[in-house]
Design a protein that fits this description.
This protein is mostly helical and 328 residues long. The protein has 12 helices and 4 strands; from the N terminus they run H-E-E-H-H-E-E-H-H-H-H-H-H-H-H-H. A 4-stranded antiparallel beta sheet has the order 1-2-4-3. The two termini are 35 Å apart.
Length: 328
Amino acid sequence: MIPADLSRAVVHAVRRAVEGGELGGAASVPERVVVERTRPGGVGEYATPVAFQVAKAAARAPRDVADVLARLLAEEPGIARVDVTGAGFLNFTLAARSEAALVREVLGAGIRYGYAADGREADPFCWARRVGPRERAVREAAGRIAASQGQSYAQERAGMTVAPVARRDGDVIAAYGQDAARWAMLCVPARETPGFTPGLLVQDESNELFRVRYAHSRARALTRNAEQLGFRAEAGEGEGTGSHELVRLIAEYPLVLEAAAHHRAPERLVRHLVAVADALLDHQHHVLPRGDEKPSAAHRARLALAEAAGTVLAGGLALLGVDAPDFL
């Protein structure tokens, strides 16, 4: 089970409880449930406050609702443990999932990895010409992410407050370029005013946008280098590479998209892409054989993981409206 599957499993558990009469006839089943990474010091790996949402309509205490859902969710394959904490928070520990299965899923889905089953490409935004570049960048990114999760743009647009830039939008784009300006506009919450510094133009790893795009280009370069050495990617277990963090971040990407859509927060995707890029740039040093070393199954698995990470970066940048060049 991956985090996105966990969200669907929670919805299914609520439906079973409602249809089975365990939560009373007035309880309703939410279309989606937001499951997020447990905060430091919390219990388990992931958590959701869904019991509070369901309890209100069911006229039950959130803790009672959480206990019912915990019992049902404990039966789900892929969930190792369910804990109820506080007044009714559900906390989950997932069963271990193989790196090979995750990588195959990512490479099979391509840049649509992380999309909901009813996810789609965003429709053209007819209002875009009537707003400034900052508001357009934020609303278009939010709309793309919402569409990837099967939500309508009308839902995504509601309730958003977009702060303008501190200087004229046209001047910002002229000074920093479309991609760098857009990145700066999206890396802070919509209600906050973005900042622009000369660091946006620096072409080294001190610049987060450069790191993300550079990591993507490195993933593409590793594939080309491997072909020159006579081997290709093959999903497997790349033991001994310290790749656990990269695997975790790739697995959490669908959950990040879902949370970014729910909270109307493209900056959550920005932060995740930076983390994936940093982990990939560390991982790249273990991918290719060194010296007289011959390509092995481990090298093929490490390359497949790098390609999966590059796929996540390409898909995430596309949702933000930022270019992901193969050469940088």
